[in-house]
Amino acid sequence: MRGYDKHAYEPFAVTVDLAVLTLRAGALHVLLVERGQEPYAGRWALPGGFLLPEESAEEAARRELGEETGLADVSGLHLEQVRAYSEPGRDPRMRVVSVAFAALLPDPPEPRPGTDAAEARWTPYERATGLAFDHDRILANARARVGARLESTCLATAFCPPEFTLGELQQVYESVWGTPLDRPNFRRKVLATPGFVEPVPGGARLTGGRGKPAALYRAGPATALHPPLPRTPREGHPA
Amino acid sequence: MRGYDKHAYEPFAVTVDLAVLTLRAGALHVLLVERGQEPYAGRWALPGGFLLPEESAEEAARRELGEETGLADVSGLHLEQVRAYSEPGRDPRMRVVSVAFAALLPDPPEPRPGTDAAEARWTPYERATGLAFDHDRILANARARVGARLESTCLATAFCPPEFTLGELQQVYESVWGTPLDRPNFRRKVLATPGFVEPVPGGARLTGGRGKPAALYRAGPATALHPPLPRTPREGHPA
DNA sequence: TCAAAAGTGTTGCTAATACACCCATGC
DNA sequence: GCATGGGTGTATTAGCAACACTTTTGA
Question: More exposed terminus of chain A, fewer Cβ within 10 Å: N or C?
Fold first, then answer.
């Protein structure tokens, strides 16, 4: 930040990469795009793109999110910065520093191919391997980050539509963490946290499920979870 | 990452900013440098600098750390990436994207001024306000990140010399979190976590303290803390 | 002998896990 | 009826906060 000269250093390109996560049929999915050109032509990759001259990485990520998903209003969706990736060889063409974001979507719209006519597709998280560049690592980091945030923040509601049941909320945790949770205990912990969820006044849901209609909730005003929702229903904790 | 043209976009400068944290006399301190030139000439700032063409942000951060502290061997020190900062106006000169790191130092050496002859100084965390650029925010984010990592990882030993007492380790937590902890309970939790600390075979310490000599420990092989060391001796965090 | 810091023991409360059980709906 | 998912109740248990107490040093 001192002794600088605008032209003394090779210019860097700065991009954003997005791990757009959602739940489809109770399983974690990620939005992938098929690359149309070299390098890695034909391979799947995380969506992303260059920063425009007058936008921040967050703004670029939100713009890309709208472009890739085709969603009209993308302003309320949660974007979580994961970290920056800056290894010199990560893009064979030039020096690219990438800021990765995790985006959380409640309803999974069918993706429309981006402006560059490459295909876009929701892919189960487990099958999203062999991605272009270092996107395998970025995706794993994004999932780990989101999983950690679920423990201590109210982030889980970002995966849910405006009104949701506690069963749906529980599925968020189970899908991202990959562990089953005890329903009665989950319910108590969520309801015991003030401001996490609020019951919607006169609602109960019916049509979808085969069982008893579930009560509907909305996201509450809280952002932090005190105490945290621990990840361990079955884990080796002998001590 | 698609449809790119090396010259289609304004070039970005990429820098690293370092929040170098240490404990002096039981209080959290941060390394600041006085800026010698505009903008913000005469103001204090976090140390940092540009990425060289063939180094990653982590490598640049470690190099800067060595340059600013004057430490000969900087390879074992802990560097924690905080996040990237990319708002268009954050540097008035040009578009600068900065990757922030928190560095944790056990022994606080007197800093030597950097190559650019500006002054460098350890500053108590509370007095490190009014910094140049957006460094107030970066520093706060770095401290929050380190505090959160103390809960769930064995990071605290990075603040300690190779051999340390449990009292010193406790001071790390108390200084970063800003809360006093109960010594007996802290001791039990640390020792109950396998691999967090290991007693050094035949050691006890004497000269420094006025009380009973404390046993010496070293960092163990564990990196994660299960269960986490909770931050709350008596705390009610309402939303 | 006192102060200061390390270390041990104990107690009592809180909270969470692991269930059993009831409810309401679709088929 | 019965399968399925929602929701409530509860007992045992484990963990932990709080505090009393002992130990070992320097002054």
Answer: C
Q: Is the peptide bond before A113 cis (omega within 30 degrees of 0)?
A: no
CA distance B204 to chain A (A): 27
* pLDDT tens for each residue of chain A, 239 residues long: 444 444 555 678 999 999 999 999 889 999 999 998 889 999 999 999 999 999 999 999 999 999 988 888 888 899 999 999 999 999 999 999 999 999 999 987 777 655 555 688 999 999 999 999 999 999 999 999 999 999 999 999 999 999 999 999 999 999 999 999 999 999 999 999 999 999 998 766 766 668 889 999 999 999 988 888 988 754 432 22
Look-up of token digits 């200084």:
B175
List of chain B residues whose C-beta atoms are within 8 Å of the C-beta of residue A9: 13, 50-53
Which one of B67, B119, B151, B163 is the catalytic residue?
B119
B86, A58: Cβ pair inside 8 Å? yes
Helices B135-152 and B166-177, axial angle in degrees (round to 10): 140
Q: What is the pTM of this model?
A: 0.91
Any strand C atom closer than 7 Å to B26 CB: no
User: Do the Cβ atoms of B107 and B21 come closer than 8 Å?
Assistant: no
Are the Cβ atoms of B2 and A239 closer than 8 angstroms?
Answer: no
In this structure, is the CB of residue A213 within 7 Å of any atom belonging to strand C?
A: yes
**Nucleotide at minimal C1' distance from the B214 CA:** C6
Coarse DSSP helix, strand, coil percentages of chain B, rounded to the nearest 5 percent: 25, 25, 45
For residue A187, give every residue at least 6 positions away whose Cβ sits within 8 Å of its Cβ, in sequence order, or none: A166, A170
Distance, in Å, from the CA atom of A137 to the CA atom of A228, rounded to the nearest integer, reads 27
For B153-219, which CATH class?
mainly alpha
- What is the C-alpha to C-alpha distance for residues A107 and A92, in angstroms, rounded to an integer? 35
- State the CATH architecture for A155-219: Orthogonal Bundle (1.10)
Which residues in chain B have Cβ-Cβ distances shorter than 8 Å to A88?
53-56
**A12 chain-B contacts, CB cut-off 8 A:** 11-14, 51, 97
- A119 labelled catalytic: yes
Find all residues with CB under 8 Å of A71, minimum gap 6, and list them: A65, A77, A109
Phi/psi at A123 (5° precision): -130, 135
Query: Which residue pairs, CB below 8 angstroms and at least 24 apart, start in A64-67?
Result: A64/A16, A64/A18, A65/A18, A65/A20, A65/A103, A67/A114, A67/A115
Query: Is B53 in contact with A223 (Cβ distance < 8 A)?
Result: no
Q: Enumerate the β-bridge partners of residue A211.
A: none
Q: Return the CATH number of B13-151, one of 3.40.50.410, 1.25.40.10, 3.40.50.300, 3.90.79.10.
A: 3.90.79.10
Write the DSSP symbol of residue A154.
Answer: S
- Kindly list the domain boundaries of chain A, sorted by start residue: 13-151, 155-219
